[in-house]
Amino acid sequence: MCANVFGVLKSLFGKPFDGGKRMDHGGPQQHQQQPHHQQHHPMEQQAAYYAQHPAMGRLYEVQKEAAALGPQVCTFSGLQNDRDYKRLERELTRLLLEVDQVDTEGKAELQGARKRAAQEVEGLLRYLEENATHPSRLAMEALSEEARRLVDEAVVAPQRAGRAADISDDLVEALQRLVLRLTQVKTEGRVPLRKARYRALTRLCAVQDVLEGRTQAHTLSLPLSEDTHEAVHRINQVMAKVSVARSQLVALLMGLSGRDSCAHLSRLLTEMQVELDALDVSGNAAIRNYRKQVVEEINGLLKHLDLEVEGDDTRRYDLAQNDSIREIEAVRAHVSHLREGVLRHCVTGDLSFRPKAELQSLLTHLDQVDTAKNPCIREARRRSVVEVQAIITFLDLREALARRGPTGPGEHPAHRAVWMVLGSLSDLQAQVLGFDGKRADKSYMMLEELLTKQLLALDAVDPQGDDMTKAARKQAVKFAQNILNYLDMKTDEWEY
Asked: Where does residue 32 rank: exposed (0-12), middle (13-18), buried (19+ CB within 10 A)?
């Protein structure tokens, strides 16, 4: 973290923060420790003289305060209306005013030192404002606000009104779409934006887990009949309390309730655990399993609550160092090497290079990568899978075209037309596989136009009632659309 912070500061000011040491180099203590042949250097004597000046001392203190605020500025991930933003802005503005009030007495050295101090404070202020008002940061907040509205209408508001929460598959799917849109928001490598995006994703994924856990509870055959055992009635009562606690936790995660409710909710959940532990269910395995399920659900709620209490600094938002991401990147590098080999052999018409078995093993490897329910890792894995599948389908079509050979006189004309389009699509897919550019490039627009023309050519094919031609055309259309989607994925500049 420290390396990231001071790296950002270095990019802002050209030099890293050093606690003001640049302004007092050659001071009395350092001067005494230097070798004898350097003690009488005119520039160092001049620096030592001005380091003792009251104005220079005040500028040194300002730089020390700015250096102390630097890490907070470089990791602040909120908006302009947040309390921490206003505090940092107020402190930096105060330092800037103090710099302006320093009397340089017309001396060039003091003027230069005051200018440097002002630039550093102004740089922090500018960086703070840029991140809080960055379009990507505002896009994250808009998506978070949309999620809050959905959760409030379906879960929180009904619970507060004494009604049952409306947790449907549509709500869970809507939240999943918002999660995917959040993963596509660009951060430009900025730590504050990465932190803000990861914070929003973590909250949304936690809400998804809580809601999906409740859905699973409704699919169980339990609760059992109250006539089975006297403990069932008490477990059902706890289940009702768990339902209320779940809605309260969702409201807390989405910022729809105050932070002071954390301790209250934790106490309620702990009391439920104690109440369940006190039940005597040793004589009935079914009721014991029922209690175990309820206890596990409470433990899950407590786990999400603990993460919320710990705060964002305990969460790892820089995914570049994640082990799963590194594993995915290693697979991507291998896939890139295989793709180059496939394209190189295709140029010469050589079909002997068939790494399909190796590609299939890479798919199996990617399936085993642990995403830890992290949407960014999940999306990275999905993209790698698409890259592998694109090469496999390219090889399959090449082999199919090679096996087809010359067409016979009895072949249906429409079927022959579909195969001609597939031949063109194979050539275009080779270009797409080798494409490495942006959407604004002419080559991208040309490929997109040519692929669209092939889709139009397929639409113009009349099967004339031939079932084989219908199936072939449908498959060719899907193939062309997959190539377009792959080209689009390669150029959408997605990041972790």
From this structure: exposed
